[in-house]
Amino acid sequence: MNTGAAYGHWLLVAVNSILLLAFAFSFFRPHTRRDWRTFGAFGAFVVALFVEMYGFPLTIYLFSGWLIRRYPQIDWFSHDSSHLLQTLTGWRGDAHTGPLHLASNLLILGGMILLIIVAAFILNLAISLTGVAEAMTAWVTSFGLTAMQLLFVLIVFYLLLGMFMDVLSMMVATIPITFPIVTHLGVDPVWYGIFIVLMCELGMITPPVGMNLFVVHGIRPDKGGIHDAIVGALPYVVIMIAFTILLMFVPGIATWLPGKM
């Protein structure tokens, strides 16, 4: 396991807590005593969160006396303290490949997906209630763009957006707005779904946030720089853009089979 110090970073606790609380205060701006109590409770949660992340885990703190007597060989400020359950259950081997760690990763991933779905639902509801989609559709169509011209604009838009956002964030943030616009111009919904998938996959190989670039860089045997992975991905970027343009001129490639179902 990693024996380097993983906790005790109190400067990070202070800096992160101050920044987040200052950001929250700029929006919340408490005035009444009830506002201040609410903000104080939120502030306590934020501080406790960063103490747990960077300072010292509360669970280990509460059981520190017993843990030190029971496991004197473990430095509880090291990364070992992140795997308390493995230590208590006596699991041997790398904690990162153990069942407890894998189960926690699955729970975290499931929670993230559920949170994204809920956020997407709330965003769609907010957009429909506020009339943002209708206003955006009217604004874009006022430029007199054809469907083909708009799709070229969207290729550039998603290419740039993929450099700074992950796939799920792009889909949640943009589809509720772009979908009504393109369907208003006569784009087939099934075809646009395939277009979005291609654009999101394109975003996964565009730096600096391209996830697949980091995956390739992590598994390469020579452990070279990530610049090589970026350069190696450029031909695939060109191929995906060319295939997208081909779909634009021959949409039947994407819609023929669904049309037969």
Key traits:
about 260 residues; about 75% helix
3D structure, described in words:
The longest helix is centred in the middle third of the chain and has 32 residues, at 99-130. Helix 10 runs antiparallel to helix 12 (226-249) and helix 11 (211-219) crosses helix 12. Helices cover 74% and strands 0% of the residues. With 261 residues, the protein is an all-alpha fold. It has 3 domains: 10-94, no CATH class; 98-130; 132-260. The protein is built from 13 helices and no strands.
Shape: extended
First-last Cα distance: 53 Å
Average pLDDT across residues?
Answer: 80
Q: Tell me the series of helices and strands, N- to C-terminal.
A: HHHHHHHHHHHHH
Q: What count of helical segments does DSSP give?
A: 13
Strand-residue proportion: under 5%
Structural class: mainly alpha
What does the largest sheet look like? none
Total count of domains = 3
Q: What is the count of β-strands?
A: 0
Helical content band: over 70%
Poorly predicted tracts of residues: none
Integer-rounded radius of gyration? 25 Å
Quick overview of this protein structure:
With 261 residues, the protein is mainly alpha-helical. It is 74% helix and 0% strand.
List the helices and strands and how they pair.
Elements lengths: L9 H19 L4 H23 L2 H5 L1 H7 L13 H6 L9 H32 L1 H10 L5 H15 L5 H18 L4 H15 L7 H9 L6 H24 L2 H9 L1
